Amino acid sequence: MMKKLFLFTLTAFSIHLAPGQEKTGVDFTNANYFEVLQQAEKENKPIFIEFGVNCGYCYKMKKEVFVDPEVGNFYSSNFINLVIDERSNIGKDLAERFNIYSYPTYFYLNSKGEIVHIAANYKSSDKIIKEGQHALNEKTYSPSGVWWNKLKTRNKSTYTLFNTANSAFMNLTGNNAKYSNQNMSLSDFNFVNKSQLERATREIEKSLKIEEYYFNTFAAAIIYYLSNESEKAYDYAEMALSAFPHHMKPMRTRDKILNEVIAKTKTNRE
Hints:
- With 270 residues, this protein is of the alpha+beta class.
- 53% of the residues lie in helices and 8% in strands.
- The chain has a 4-stranded mixed sheet with strand order 2-1-3-4, with helices on both faces.
């Protein structure tokens, strides 16, 4: 009886809202990052990610811009929309991986999960719609929002660098958020199968051909270690350790893994 009453109440409430109180603004999903990637591929639909919730501009975007019916109509029609809390495990990992210091940051991904456009800070309704239009038009893909330190490239290949490095690492983790755990160690990668490793190797080599930066050298150290290419693993681990940014807490785990790679491959060089 209680179950029937609950269903009736819920239905009546929905009917009451329907005529004039439809949901406005951007329809942000409750799914997690990895579920959204799968959904995007299945539906062949691009992704919009608002990265950052705990800042002045983050609140301003939430209260003023993302509730705008015009913005909501555009983004809900064209994108799967996701908010990532920078304080979450996946948030900390992405902030570290892409050297994010400005909030909010907006990532636009295609249906394959590849970054095609990036923007940041407060945007008016007109401007956030314009950013989305840029992301939907391949002719206007641009790395204008890519400001990461130590990167010399400032052209479309920058996106290829990030996307291939990210794809390589995703193959190592099997789309599992486990890698964001602060207790991660080198042994967590021992279960990578041959096909995953082959795909990861192809992707990381594409990334390294464009430019070397912290995240792709970190991934390369693990990949070559798993491939028993000790010399390459050692060299890339050393390279990644000499890069930035050691002051970030999540980087301490990465540094620990790199030191593990060096310790296990050093004897092969002596």
